[in-house]
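hiii, so i know i said id send this last week but things got crazy w the move. better late than never?? heres the sequnce for the chain we talked about at the cafe, plus the structure i predicted for it. fair warning i was half asleep when i ran it
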Amino acid sequence: MRLTLQSQRLSGVAVIRCNGRIVVGEEVSLLQQEVEKHRLETQKYLLELGEVSYLDSGGLGALVRLAGMLRARRGDLKLCRVSPFVHNVLRATNMLGVFTVFSTEQEALASFGHHPAPREEHGKSARTQILCIDPSSDLLAYMTTVLKRAGFEVTASCHLSDASTLVGAMKPRAVVCGPGVVSTGPAFEKFRRLDSRTALLMLPADFHTSHASDAGIDLVNQLQALLQS
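okay and structure toks below
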């Protein structure tokens, strides 16, 4: 189902009611355009997700990135009336602690100004350093948050040239390359030769359009298996 959006401002909060699929492409662009309509008036947003039937990894990444951007501006993004599907995705990706979720719109609106934004709580496992690379800011936000919630220390880069510098400075245990990273050509070959001790995980071409919870679980499992091999 194509994403449809209805928005209004209530008590200084932009309330956006979503119906359909939040996925990479036109749907994420529509949501970003709807957010932009209210940007000059408020940095407080509430997404009603009761009628959202599907969320891919790029779509969830867009929500994570939006929340981070708003909180950096002393605003916030909260969720209400999330559908069972969305709730299961947030639970499977360990992101229930990233967003504040309310049962009703009224409760969510009343919470603005009273409840601080959720603090990122990382897992208790060893702080293994990971570098994530992909040109998509949304997908990077998704990958970074999933891995941080799994207990890794994560740095992200949109550019292969910047990542080359980071590998030399960080000495990460592993590098995760998203589907947008071009794995052919001299730039990538130079990157691969930087440190032979660094494990490299190349994500599949459909990672950004995969079911958000399946993609997150697969990412963590693949990385853990790679580090143990």
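btw Strands lie at 4-10, 13-22, 44-55, 76-80, 100-102, 129-133, 153-157, 174-177, 199-202. thought thatd interest u
miss u guys!!
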